[in-house]
Design a protein that fits this description.
Elements lengths: L4 E4 L2 H17 L4 E2 L10 H11 L2 E6 L1 H4 L2 H12 L4 E5 L14 E2 L8 H10 L14 H12 L3 H13 L3 H13 L6 H10 L3 H13 L6 H10 L3 H13 L6 H10 L3 H13 L6 H10 L3 H13 L6 H10 L3 H12 L2
Parallel strand pairs: 1-2, 1-3, 3-4, 4-5
Helix pairs in contact: 6-7, 7-8, 8-9, 9-10, 10-11, 11-12, 12-13, 13-14, 14-15, 15-16, 16-17, 17-18
InterPro entries: TIR_dom, Toll_tir_struct_dom_sf, TPR-like_helical_dom_sf
Pfam family, one: TIR_2
Protein name: TIR domain-containing protein
Amino acid sequence: MTGYVFISYGHADDAGYVARLATHLRSAGVPAWFDAEIRSGNVWESVIRERLDSCAAFVVVMTPAAESSPWVSREINRAEKLRKPIFPLLLAGEEFFRLSNIQYEDVSGGRLPSAGYVRLLTGAIQPSAAERPSTPIAEGDRAQPARQAAAGDETLLMTLVLRLEQAGKDDEAIALLKRNVEAGGTDMLMTLVLRLEKAGRKSEAIAYLQRHVDAGGTDMLMTLVQRLEQAGKKSEAIAYLQRHVEAGSTDMLMTLVQRLEQAGKKGEAIAYLQRNVEAGGTDMLMTLVLRLESAGRDEEALAYLRRHVEAGGTDMLMTLILRLEKAGKQDEAIALLQRHAAG
């Protein structure tokens, strides 16, 4: 199998991100292809099909535009038919319903995927066990790679892990990965997690992720959250998101808000948005306003808009005017317009 990933996306909104994504993957040693590389004169459909059929892994960038794209739908159909490993990225909106059984990485806000995600792709584009030499390894042949792997050579470590698995020694391979991770080898954490899950040891996989996140490894936070949710531990997943947001990181704020709302904790979700806006996070102002209005707290929503406009935020002036008029406060709306018209 040719070692590259095929990137599927919705053209209208996602092309800029996908170009950055492809550059990011290539710089990490993962060859990536997307349709911007089709040369003028090529037959578009035949090239797409040939490149998809030949890829080692399929990356789909999930956005509302992509979900409504007939091309993305066709590409996913083809990837599923050919049993390509699928690696979704959530850039905007919600995960695709049809891919809800597959772990995705949250890259909302235009973030590039984590090192853990890249390692998964790297593993997917490696030759399969059927394509690798299957000669059994004698104990003596394994000793030197094992010593070097223990010393921290990750390339040799993966070589040994793959050979142990070829020899049917999956437990030994997992034990080797565990020793590496427990000695501080975080680059192999996701490899260990996937092996533990494959072996039916999901609780143990979650425990390793928890230790990593508890030690400050926020790169695996969403991976842990998704695993906890799959295990039915939604409250624990929310608690991890809360600690992250309360520590001052806003990158997961909307993820936390959505999880709280799904858990029926809309008041708590609004409180997090309020703290963010009151600390100067104006990018979340409209999100807060809509949530307050949905909760029947229209006067609070107006108060936030007023404060923003009075502080010089003219970008929300017409939003405030329209809401004042809707609330029957035409005199206030007119006075506001007069003040701004007068300079």
